[in-house]
Amino acid sequence: QVQLVESGRGLVQPGGSLRLSCIASGFTFSSYAMSWYRQAPGKEREWVASITATSGNTLYANSVKDRFTIYRANAGNTVYLQMNSLKPEDTAVYCCKVVISRRHYWGQGTQVTVSS
Question: Distance between CA atoms of 116 and 99, rounded to whole angstroms?
Fold first, then answer.
């Protein structure tokens, strides 16, 4: 079955960096676009970034553009989210997602806290 497992949770100071990983299994990873979402306490889930399957084209939410980088390693079935210049408002649970045959699969999420 499809599984997505995130890692890289942490507490960082404003201005710091963190890298999240999402390891996928149960499907042909290299054939599907992957996305990162986040949900802050009391807020709706928000799309963060996406990367296409083969060309590796990327898209970012305006709130993270020029600070976050999404990339993938198809050989390792892993998608990453490199987060730089972190702000307190980036505090959230971050999840990766894949859509296969119009069904959405989510990981369990990993907590990122940005605080001094």
Answer: 36
What's the whole-number mean pLDDT along residues 13-27?
Answer: 97
Query: What's the pLDDT band for 52 if we cut at 50, 70, 90?
Result: very high
| Under 8 Å between Cβ of 4 and 107 | yes
**What pairs with residue 111 in β-bridges?**
93
What's the Cα-to-Cα distance from 6 to each of 13, 18, 66, rounded to whole Å?
21, 13, 22
Averaged pLDDT score across all residues of the chain: 96
**Count of other CB atoms within 10 angstroms of residue 22:** 25
- Cα–Cα distance measured from residue 95 to residue 111, given in angstroms and rounded to the nearest whole number: 9
Residues 6+ away with beta carbon under 8 Å from 58? 49, 50, 51, 52, 69, 70, 71
List pLDDT tens digits, range 72-90.
Answer: 999 999 999 999 999 999 9
Tell me the two tokens of residue 54.
Answer: 């083969």
